[in-house]
Specification:
- It is found in: Cytoplasm.
- The chain has 12 helices and 15 strands.
- The protein has 360 residues and is of the alpha/beta class.
- It folds into 4 domains: 64 residues, Chorismate Mutase Domain, subunit A; 89 residues, D-Maltodextrin-Binding Protein, domain 2, CATH 3.40.190.10; 75 residues, 3-Layer(aba) Sandwich (D-Maltodextrin-Binding Protein, domain 2), CATH 3.40.190; 81 residues, Alpha-Beta Plaits, CATH 3.30.70.
- Strands 1, 2, 3, 4, 5 and 11 form a 6-stranded mixed sheet that branches.
- Helix 1 crosses helix 3 and helix 11 packs antiparallel against helix 12.
- It starts with a helix and ends with a strand.
């Protein structure tokens, strides 16, 4: 049986080996050209990472493919190819909410590829500070969750910072209950980020109501605590389980099976037009009747679709709000540009957070 199997497999494996040889030669040719691109960018002081260009490359290849590779496969493969080429030009660093093993770290690798150098930060504030100070070229921060809504601290910092949003990623969030033993014997409390506890509250109330719930700075920090104390369980993902040597007591405990968190990539350089973009804004309105309607009317008149509308208190001691708005299109697209000109005249305050490729 083994001889017959090997006989049938050998010619197929020989063909794969021959194709692999062609692929490695072509990839090295591509990398050599990427180095030339890097030299041109250095001469003009242009940024190494251009999210709109990478989005265009992936979209074009997805359209070209007749299968069997699906669009997600092509995106994952070329993200790593481009990340490796980028690292040959210049090592790029991205700050993320640490410690190692968080969903923010996972989002960083899925967006930038594994050739990125990660900088783990103890808080979202420190992610912003690291990019502003130049310790990292980019930051990865959660902005909203499909179950629990906006991440308030990120919204507040986006209002204050001079950094711009250059990209986004919607990451499926799969929560596991992790312990040292893989069971709950002797476990008295469960630790996780406050949002993770909220996303699993129904499961916890039904299946582990005896566990004290404790909010900590991140799910990876919860995993670190569980690795040091057998009486602690952590809610975290597979990456944290592997890094801290924990066992899965219960898998996929999130209340919403389609739970996702949207992350945005912040940096100093604005993204160019990719052809499939989104623009994020913060606005406030004058205190007058119909102010919000007047604010949004230019968007409708210029045919600009609004995909998100979130309000946050202005925190100035009065009943005033900032509105966080996402619209389809780049700020340089004619309809969006025209709407923004009118919007600025009508708004008491307007800040453009960035135009960037939409998550596919």
């Amino acid at each position: 049986m083994d001889d017959e199997l090997n006989t049938k497999l050998k010619p197929l494996r020989d063909r794969i080996d021959a194709i692999d040889a062609q692929l490695i030669a072509l990839l090295n040719q591509r990398a050599a050209i990427a180095l030339e691109v890097g030299e041109v960018k250095k001469h003009y002081n242009a940024p190494v990472f251009r999210p709109e260009r990478e989005q265009q490359v992936i979209a074009r290849l997805q359209d070209m493919s007749a299968g069997p590779l699906a669009g997600d496969h092509i995106s994952a493969i070329w993200r790593e190819i481009m990340a490796a080429s980028r690292a040959l030009e210049q090592q790029v660093r991205a700050a993320f909410l640490g410690p190692i093993g968080t969903y923010s770290e996972q989002a960083m690798y899925e967006y930038f590829g594994h050739a990125i150098e990660g900088l783990a930060c103890p808080s979202i504030d420190e992610v912003f500070r690291s990019v502003e100070a130049g310790s990292a070229e980019f930051g990865v921060v959660p902005v909203e969750n499909s179950s629990e809504g906006a991440v308030s601290r990120t919204l507040d910092l986006l209002l204050q910072t001079q950094l711009v949003i250059g990209g986004e990623l919607a990451l499926p969030i799969h929560h596991n209950l992790l312990t040292q033993s893989g069971g709950l014997t002797g476990v008295t409390r469960v630790c996780a980020h406050a949002q993770a506890l909220a996303q699993c509250q129904r499961w916890l109330s039904t299946n582990a109501p005896h566990l004290e719930r404790q909010a900590v700075s991140s799910n990876a920090e919860a995993a670190r605590l569980a690795a040091a104390d057998p009486s602690v369980a952590a809610i975290a993902g597979d990456r944290a389980a592997a890094h801290y040597g924990l066992q899965v007591a219960y898998a996929l405990i999130q209340d919403d099976p389609h739970n996702r968190t949207r992350f945005v990539m912040i940096g100093k350089d604005p993204a160019g037009v990719s052809g499939r973009d989104q623009t994020s804004l913060i606005v406030s309105v004058k205190n007058e009747p119909g102010a919000v309607f007047k604010l949004l009317e230019p968007l409708a008149r210029h045919g600009v679709s609004m995909t998100r509308f979130e309000s946050r208190p202005a925190r100035v001691g009065t009943w005033e709000y900032y509105f966080y708005i996402d619209v389809e299109g780049h700020r340089d697209d004619a309809p969006v540009a025209a709407a923004l000109v009118e919007l600025e005249k009508k708004a008491a305050f307007l800040k453009i957070l960035g135009s960037y490729p939409r998550a596919r």
